[in-house]
Amino acid sequence: MKDYRQMARRAGRLTLQVVVALFLTSVAWVLVYRWVSPPATWLMLDRRAHAPVGKGYHGIREDDRRVRYAFKPLEEVSPQLPLALVAAEDQRFLLHHGFDGDALLKAAKSNMSGKKQLRGGSTISQQVAKNVFLWHGRSYVRKAAEAYFTLLIELLWNKRRIMEMYLNVAEMGDCIFGAEAASQQYFHKSAGKLTPQEAALLAGVLPNPLRFRASNPGPQARLKQRRVLRRMRQLRGSVYVRELMEE
């Protein structure tokens, strides 16, 4: 009996040490990315290795799997793009602390109603957590890790850094990541010169950039673009961006 107790205590100590080590490693990882741009993300590596397969995907390069990615500071990106991203993805971005209960509730009601197109309730902070720190896929373990890293980045970063990270690592086409790579690919200009219409188009196709094309937008992409432009005006345009930049 004594041996079993000793083994249980050792196992408990070992488990605690592993948990503490993982916690400290995750905090250090998030702190490093507070000032350092990620060299790559798990999704970038996955796209580099495998071409995505899905119904209605466009612009998939079977042979050239090089990743286009160039991290740009927020001040070098057109202010229209963060405004468009908030208008399209997370209009309460400056108000919540990583999770938007209203959006989650609306998404749950919409999905339970049996609508054909499922609706997501993820905030920009949650998307940064999964894009930067987690592997590609769906599971309860991944959702728990997403919630954990969302709390960490909301605690250790400011909103400005979260937005800067999001517009730099978000997938905007096959092997195209971030605003600069997308701007060069689709509009042949730097991200600092994006117009409101171009920013709204990029933000509008973000939920599924492999299906909705920014290079040759169809009716659905144009509809999303107009919706985003309308919301950009409702967010007071440059006033909202100034609040974000001062964060």
In CATH, the architecture of the largest domain is Orthogonal Bundle
Overall mean pLDDT score?
Answer: 86
Which ranges are low-confidence, i.e. pLDDT below 50, for 5 or more consecutive residues?
none
Counting structural domains, the number is: 2
**Number of helices, where a helix is a run of at least 4 consecutive DSSP H or I residues:** 11
Shape, please? globular
Kindly report the name of the CATH homologous superfamily of the largest domain.
Answer: Biosynthetic peptidoglycan transglycosylase-like
- Percent strand equals under 5%
Largest sheet: 3 strands, mixed
By DSSP, the count of extended strands is: 3
Would you state the CATH class of the largest domain? Mainly Alpha
Sheet/helix structural class: mainly alpha
- Main sheet: strand order: 1-3-2
Taking the alpha carbons of the first and last residues, their distance comes to 59 Å
CATH topology of the largest domain: Penicillin binding protein transpeptidase fold
Q: How much helix is in the residues?
A: 55-70%
User: What oligomeric assembly is this protein in?
Assistant: single chain
Q: Helix-strand pattern, N to C?
A: HHEHHHHHEEHHHH
Computed CA radius of gyration, to the nearest angstrom: 20 Å
